[in-house]
Amino acid sequence: MKEKSQIEKNAAQKQIELLSSALSGASEADGHWLNAAGKHYPRLYPQGVSASPFNALFMALHSDSKGCKTNLFTLYTDAKERGTSVREHEQGVPFLYYNWNRYVNRNNPEDIITRRDYLLLEPEMKEQYKGIHNREIRTLFNIDQTTFPYVDERGYDIALKTDGGITENGYSESDERKLHIRFNDFLLKMRDYLVPVRSDGSGMPHYETDRDAVYMPRQREFKHYHDYVQEALRQIVSATGHQQRLAREGMVMKNGMPPSEDALKQERLVVEIASGIKMLELGLPARLTEESRKMVDYWNRELKENPILIDALESDVNNALEVIHKAEKGEKIEYATLRNRQKTTDLRDQLPKHYFVADEISRYPSKEDKNIVLVIDRQGKKADVVLPAGASTEVDNEVPGMNKARIERALRLEGIENVRFFNPDGALGYRPDDAYFAEKQVSLARLKNWTMEVLSTLDVTPAVKQANEKCFDKIQMVQDDKNRWALYLKPENEPGYSVYPDKEDVNRFFTTLKQAMDDIDKVRMELAHKYYALAEIKPDLKVDLFSTETRDIDLNRIQRVCVFKTKKDGIQCTATIDGNRMQPRSLTPQQWQRMWLAEDKNEYKRNLAATLFADILQQGQTQDEHAGEKQEKDAERQQTAETTKDSAEKTVQNETSAQRESWDRIKAKHPDALQLVRKGDFYRMYNDDAEKGASILGVTVQKLSEGGERGFAQSAEFPYHKLDDYLPKLIRAGERVVICDAPEMEKARSKSLQQSGSMSDGRQSEGTARETGQASGKDGNEESVEQRTTLRR
Fold first, then answer.
1. Which residues of the chain have pLDDT under 50?
2. pTM for the complete prediction?
3. In what order do the strands lie in the sheet with 441-448?
4. Which of 3.40.50.1110, 3.40.1170.10, 3.30.1330.100, 3.30.750.24 would CATH assign to domain 653-772?
């Protein structure tokens, strides 16, 4: 998921606090947790614009927590313009505003267009795109939090009359009758367009998947009609999210992975929230069931500890209620299986046709042998007769021994009622596609007196099967390097490729995988046929996840690649590039998974190495490109080499001294910390730090030559890209760490170069020294010209 801004994090925290507080208070309020005062659905005042379900939830919870008399809200600026400013010290509620200004192709995440371009598309093309929401956080205030009740008493009284709760306006028998009529109409809409609600004598409300129906106890078995209404709403919401239906898109996935928490408990929370918001639409209080009250502690803990749960709830709740609203408007909601099957059928109509059977049939009709071909549909009582010629109804156009009247009479004796005549080619040529021959008998025959003699039968089953049902060697969900799910297809006798499925299909796949393993093969084949047909029509949707995305790299420079697993460092890859063996680099689980799917594993490994070692390969190619320029300058450099030799030696001595001096200075400031010094592609530790760090990390300590490299006696190093793996190990071992990108050392080097009179290469070096580890007395933010230190736990 996209990293949230601090404003978004604060808004999410406020939402969690409101929801947790309301759920916790249900036990002491007879289960009531939302809209206990029976106020109307939240909206903006005075525009009358209603909020989305998830926004409405928190607007109502905020109103409840503040004891407000209505669910009418306003922006700070709007209130000020009306002369009714927000009162001092009042806290508002976050409002999630979505600006739909970009659209992405459902099957190609790289294809993103502007809203202007989207509006210019044809309706059929628009279906291929979905909006990308740009979320903004705004703050709303209830009108009771403003001076409106004092500035405009008459206007406020009108607002209470129209949007106030039961406390202000009461609840009469007329209101109850209106509720009965409204809810009965709602159930009729659900029956016709989503899922029927039926009476059941078991006393246990439930959604039955086999019959696709909600079963409810009779109304008299509920203490109050409102309880019956909300329980029916709970079951209807459950039906929208069932894996066989998946009318809503469902779960938000963490790092592209299906949820690993208790799905039933999370789904129960979705059901309670969505049904509660629907009760809010009806102007009724919402209650938790006894079973749900037992889960409140679990939900609150998950809301606090799982940072993506609040986003998952937003997606699930909004989608569930969107499905219900569509059904209320008269839009038929179908099973995902039926929708996909219809989509696949529509796509197949656009696929190129195959005519293997027709081509084969055209070879057999013969004037000499008096042979004809019969294509008989026994069930439909129809027959196609392919003659060598003379299929037209013209007089004197008969082929000797193939009288059409006799042929038709012979077939009628076999129960055929409709006979059509064709030629192998020409205007009356016989050329249906292979799918046409399903359930039909194809045979070679000839007329013998007044009867039909069958000579042989043609087996068209393989051609029909290939036309109607594509076979696949592999069908699997895989991830790309950006953690996006793709469907990998390996059609029989064809090269494999990947397609990015709709989010709805991805969620359906993983929900089925988690909840109904018996159905996963059906879903897998269903998606394979759908996206195979789609990719055949639009080949640009095919994605190759087995090649490197790094362009202009010569793979021939990679001689050998080895991928292996280690207990300590996980999955590693090493490569021999230009004859030099590289230090191992880590693979992601996604790259490891794709390796086992690749048709040519060796080729995939080379592409994988090209991705992992792109910096080295690109650096080498850049050097090759500038080789010519380098040769031209070699002569000039050789002339000055002798004059600068003494100066260079002096520079090295000064640099060594300066680097050791810088290391000592940082060590004096942080004597108890391990100092990691960035050197090219490695972080190094020296002297005692090297010995201590090596024992923790399991790396090798190297003894340096007499005098010490850069003034040190021993060192230990590890690749810079392993810092995120090794740093936690050092911290867990109780060490404080200074990460030094060597600003002082580079500065000292530059100074020594100037003092020695040597020529600089013109580049300015920048760097930082960062301290991380256990808490110290420093605030971690002090800066100087020489270094910047950041303290972290």
1. 250-260, 626-628, 643-644, 648, 743-769, 771, 773-793
2. 0.60
3. 418-422, 382-386, 372-377, 441-448, 451-458
4. 3.40.1170.10
